[in-house]
Amino acid sequence: MFLPILGRRVVFLVCISMSRANKGHRPPGLRGKEIGLWHAAQSKNRCTGHLDYQTKFASMPLVGLNLPKIQSVIQEFVEPVPELPKTSNELISFMCKLPTLSTSKQTPEDEAEELFGEIRDCFDVSVGPCSDPDQMLLTKESLARNPDIDHELCLSMRNCMSSAAYMKMSESRCKLPAYQFKEDIVSTIRDNQVVIISGETGCGKTTQVPQFILEDQVLGGNGSVTRIIVTQPRRISAVSIAERVATERGQSVGSSVGYQVRLERRYPQRPHGSIMFCTTGIILQWFRSDPLLKNISHIIVDEVHEREFLCDFLLCMLKRIAPLRPDLRIVLMSATINADKFVEYFDNCPKFEIPGRTFPVKTYYLEDVLRETKFWLPNSAITALCRDQSRTLKQRLLKSNLSKKEARILSYGKSPEFNKWLHSLTGLSSNAIEILRSVGEDTYPKTDLIAHSVEHILQSTQSGAILVFVPGLVDIKDVIRCLRELNPRRYDNRYGSVRIYPLHSRIPTSRDRSLFEPSPKNQRKVVIATNIAETSITIQDVVYVIDCGRIKVTDYDPRQNTSTLTAILVSKANAAQRSGRAGRVQPGICYHLFPSYVYNNVMSDFLQPEMLRVRLEDVILRIKLLGLGRVKSFLTNCLDSPSEDAISKTLIFLRQIQALKLIESETSNFNTSHSIKSRGQSHKLNRKSLREFSEAIKKDVNASGINILGSSCIHLDSTDEDDDELTPLGVHLANFPLDPQCAKLLIFGALFGCLEPILAVASCLTFRDPFEVPLEKQQEADRCRKELSQNSFSDHWVFATVIQSYNGLNSQIERHQFCQRYFLNERTIKDIIRLMNDYAQLLYERRYIATPKPDDSNANCNQWNINLFRAIMCAALYPNVVKVDPRFTKEGKPKTSVIMACPSEGRANIHPSSVNSKIQPTEPIWMVYFTKTKLESGSYPSIFDSTVISLRPLLFFSGNIEISKNDTSLFTIDQWIKFSGELKVVNLLKDLRKCMDGLLEQKFKSPSVANWDSTNKEGRLLQTIVDLLTSEPPPAVQVEKLS
């Protein structure tokens, strides 16, 4: 059967090839210069990617379309035009779904709450009672004075402080520099609303300041009105610090100390008189249910100097609510570097400085390390190092908007100042000089010097832990591999004299308590960590630090709508933090693997704030959810404002995924049903009533003497590109603790009865890929991926297959063998399954599914419908779409396909690890993706995960569809995806989409489980949509190249 089909395909491809070959000939009649101009134009089109496929229109197949059934279902959802109220007060009540405005006096807290949160009800996007577990702590009990609780907590505190465990831990606490300033710190916080506490690494501010406040308040009789929240930028930090503080108090986590991170929480025994550690994102969730944080007495924001974007957002929020909460105490804790910037931001608030440890730290730079360790490289390795460094520098220069020629010239040259510095060095071998020359104005990039330095320290010293800083997880593995190649016996974790601890948020050993305890006398400790160990994690017995000089950061390019994850040179602030980790218990040494010239002349003082280098959908959704007005107006009040280009790109993206909509939208290009027209009329009236309502609120607030929030809080007087409101879907996406596209994926998976596969995909996309592939077995692993894909042409379907296959095995031995055969990390799979259960719980709490089980039968009625799965991926991931255009040689053989995103983003590549990396379509096809990243190598961004989709899902779940002016059978989606079809059919499908949008809007307002009963109009609509999306023939695709 296969051979005849193959023969037909070859004939088909040859025909296409002949046709294209004819098109490649120049037109007849050209002469002289005209021939040259024609060839130049052809060459330009090939270089810029303006291929003829962009003008082709794919034909929408009519196979399986039951038009009468679709028309019948649409008729069921046509609504009559409602009778509009006549008086203004009735209009406000009707359109805003609020009671008629009352003149009764409200408290300032109530008015501020309306300004921050309740005004979203005017947008008709209420979602019912809050069931978010990330908000439950604050909604259980409010802070109110209770003398009985004050007395009880005071007695409990005295008993705690007199316990043997507490007294024992107090001995070590007393040695911390912060402890010497306990009374001064407490009195400063008591007398000032905002306090900046800066201290060098190891001074004890993170663990001690919350305890100082708790003891002062509880012993002072204020326990019932004391609830201390401490934010950390990372989950591992929040958990480990909570455990440390609980231990210092002679307790376990869950007594007076608790923590809450995403999908994991251990609350204190009761909220009064407690300390709660959480990630920054958690407290931002609380603003929705408690806009003024009335249930918090003290909020401590730690590690503010890192300038993480959610932390900057939180600081902006705290600055806005501080005047309305004079009793709230805000403590910002920072490294000594750049603390003055925060002082200025909070109107010159007091700053308290805590000195660090007194043990000195000796600093070595690369030239000193080479001299000290006698590190040596052969000439071939130095040549390769020079070539790699030039390539890295060239890529960096190209990102600075230099031309390729300028970048190439600069990448091979060294500045005269650097050459002069190099010649001034003494006491170095010629080999060391050549290494420094090859490294240039950068840091040493390879892991061999790190391993050599660790060996040197272990051989030349008798005690002290070693902390190694590397950029990422791959580098951690490389260092461990190098060490075990150098001395397998010494670094064996079971029998060796050295214990290696990889420290990364994705590695379970990061939670190993022995990591934070002194090593036994007969064993040394080597910790290999990312920048998480700069400030968030403290390892007491570290004496030696090896700093590779690089840090991984994500940078967002709004022009290409692409994120770039690269390892860049650290800043002076990073270098200072890293060297500060040494010398905690005795004088320490820090080995920086970059030259002193780089530190003094090249290195920047600080890294760019994260707010300026990430996409802003999370921040913008929070701004809209909290009713904080226009995005640009709000973000201008942050410590550092993002570029307008980044804001505009993110707003466009959120509109494309239907999370936001402009308040005055453009008129549709299609004739829609009468009910849809009436909604547009109602929308204009709703906007008018909203203006009146917001003005009334502002008048009431001003009358009460509260004009703190400023006019930027509500901007409803004009319409521009930043005049958006959350859609009902956007409200739900903003309330899910994950990426908005993954949240949308969960919602559509639950709605269309494809829950378990979608849960697997969302968990893998938000957590990590379950594959763990040795470098030498990459090709074998790629074949395993393709086998798991089941010819679905979908990386996302691979995730679902992995989880389904693993769960289907009965014994642990079978599961272990399955993971070994397919290069899967079993621990990662178990974490993914746990995450799937957590996401199912979130959907259950929001009433999208009937039970909190991922394998619930009703939620999986279409579980293995691959065509529906593709459609759901399209619905969630749009506008992340690329077009794959086939190319052929003159002989008709397929060439590498052209991958093209939307015109503004340009070309892309499919990453080699994808099952679609060698895809060979016989006609233009589309794919959706989640991750597109510009790597350090490669000229185009790489797509790591993709799913081939059909045309109907693209039409059904896409954005704006325009009709060609010259031909009513030609259409364009979002100005670049072209297809042909009958106008009547396209209009019918658009009306069906409107019906689905209406159903979704209803479910977002009043969430309920999907009703698939065919006697119910909801069930008929859902089944009609499923039939529409699954009856289309699959795209013509093959993987193996034809010979």
TrEMBL record:
It comes from the Eukaryota. Pfam families: DEAD (PF00270), HA2_C (PF21010), Helicase_C (PF00271), OB_NTP_bind (PF07717), RNA_hel_CTD (PF26026). It comes from Schistosoma mansoni. Residues 186-355 form the Helicase ATP-binding domain. Residues 1-21 form the signal peptide. This is Putative atp-dependent RNA helicase. Belongs to the DExH box helicase family. CDD domains: DEXHc_RHA-like (cd17917), SF2_C_RHA (cd18791). Keywords: ATP-binding, Helicase, Hydrolase, Nucleotide-binding, RNA-binding, Signal. Residues 453-627 form the Helicase C-terminal domain. GO terms for molecular function: ATP binding; DNA helicase activity; G-quadruplex DNA binding; G-quadruplex RNA binding; hydrolase activity; RNA helicase activity. GO terms for cellular component: cytoplasm; nucleus.
